[in-house]
Amino acid sequence: MNILVTGGAGYIGSHTVRLLEKTGGKVVVYDNLVTGHRNAVKSSIFVEGDIFDSTLLADTIRRYDISSVVHFAAYSLVGVSMIKPQDYYHNNVVGTLNLLDVMLANGVNKLVFSSTAAVYGEPETSPITENVLKNPTNVYGRTKLIMENAMADYSRSYGLKYIALRYFNACGADAAGDIGEDHQPETHLIPLILKACLGKTDTLKIFGDDYPTKDGTCVRDYIHVNDLGQAHVLALKALYNGHESDVYNLGNGSGFTVKEIIEAAEAVTGLTAPKEIAPRRAGDPAVLVASSDKIRQDLGWQSEYTDIKNIIDTACHWHKKNPDGFAG
Ligand SMILES: NC(=O)c1ccc[n+]([C@@H]2O[C@H](COP(=O)([O-])OP(=O)(O)OC[C@H]3O[C@@H](n4cnc5c(N)ncnc54)[C@H](O)[C@@H]3O)[C@@H](O)[C@H]2O)c1
Ligand SMILES: O=c1ccn([C@@H]2O[C@H](COP(=O)(O)OP(=O)(O)O[C@H]3O[C@H](CO)[C@H](O)[C@H](O)[C@H]3O)[C@@H](O)[C@H]2O)c(=O)[nH]1
């Protein structure tokens, strides 16, 4: 397996790269570093490049004899996608279509794709199974759903074999403490709570306390980044073993409100985060909780990290060890 990992210098990508390397395959990270970090790529081959650069992509595929792609490269912030939709359609849709063109033109037909729980919108049932109606409430989710539909069409017409993984909320960090979540600016809940607890940021804003949930704050399903990474390893192996194109949810199956996550993080750190209630953030669904039964049954995936405090503790370890992230 010679694997090209687009976005492999990012948060989920860098963790997955580490797990892919353990399979013995050659891993080539391809990233333009727009949100990623060069020093998040520890031992793989690194090519600094953009998924829009067809020439460099094709050269990289040929040079390293690539036979599959794991595609993380994208913009992924719900809030920003509502303000800058053009950026999101361009990078996530046009960029991915370009990658598919270059792959197919160079005889590469295996792809693991980062999709998202945001494709569902406000689902009518919970936990969410893969077959329910998809009606995204934000631009980000729409860009990922467009690509899922395009890949299904390419699969039928051009022999693309893909597995789309719909992640719920990625969090935590590798136990080694040398890679972790470092977005500039950070917008994700768990790192923001930890930074507030550790005195690295101002008051944490709780986006809305008038949702139809038990304490009025949004419910999400938090999954450890290494459990996500392991699913990519299984998905890739399945494709090499002739698995047909498919789509899987990836979550823990437990929902936590924003307030519950804050309480858990405060318990883990023994510190208190300064916080205030703020208006709702545009595009946020009230509740997103996964059923991951399908990937368990089909690919034998299991989550290793099921306790939310344990998960937060791994993130805390990274933040304490690297108070300035990768810049430190
Ligand atoms: N973080 C989550 O909770 C979450 C949940 C669901 C889905 N996802 C998806 O997972 C993937 C990775 O997310 P992440 O949290 O690791 O984000 P990230 O921003 O840390 O990583 C994305 C990486 O892609 C690179 N990139 C972006 N555009 C590129 C381009 N045009 N060419 C080359 N490289 C480019 C960035 O530099 C970065 O290294 C994304 O596709 C995201 O939509 C993330
Ligand atoms: O300062 C903050 C930040 C977040 N939140 C809330 O915390 C929850 C989680 O927010 P995140 O920004 O951490 O994550 P999202 O649920 O918005 O989105 C994440 O998970 C999604 C899937 O569920 C997408 O795939 C997306 O890429 C990924 O960023 C949301 O209810 C949000 O409103 C706050 O209250 N205050």
Can you describe this structure?
This protein has ten helices and 13 strands. It is α/β, with parallel strands linked by helices and 328 residues long. The protein has two domains: 2-171 and 223-250, 3-Layer(aba) Sandwich (Rossmann fold); 189-220 and 253-327, UDP-galactose 4-epimerase, domain 1 (Alpha-Beta Complex). A seven-stranded parallel beta sheet has the order 3-2-1-4-5-6-11, with helices on both faces. The chain has a two-stranded parallel ribbon with strand order 7-10. Helix 5 links the parallel strand 5 (110-116) and strand 6. The structure holds nicotinamide-adenine-dinucleotide and galactose-uridine-5'-diphosphate. Nicotinamide-adenine-dinucleotide is lined by residues 6-7, 9-13, 31-36, 50-51, 72-74, 76, 91, 95, 114, 116, 167, 169-170. The site of nicotinamide-adenine-dinucleotide has 26 residues, from helix 1, helix 4, strand 5 and strand 7.
Provide the fold topology.
Blueprint: E1 2-6, H1 11-21, E2 26-31, E3 45-48, H2 54-63, E4 68-71, H3 78-83, H4 85-105, E5 110-116, H5 139-158, E6 161-167, E7 169-171, H6 189-197, E8 204-207, E9 219-220, E10 222-224, H7 225-240, E11 246-250, E12 256-257, H8 258-269, E13 275-278, H9 293-299, H10 308-321
Helix pairs in contact: 1-7, 2-4, 4-5, 6-8, 6-10, 8-10
Galactose-uridine-5'-diphosphate binds next to helix 6 and strand 8.
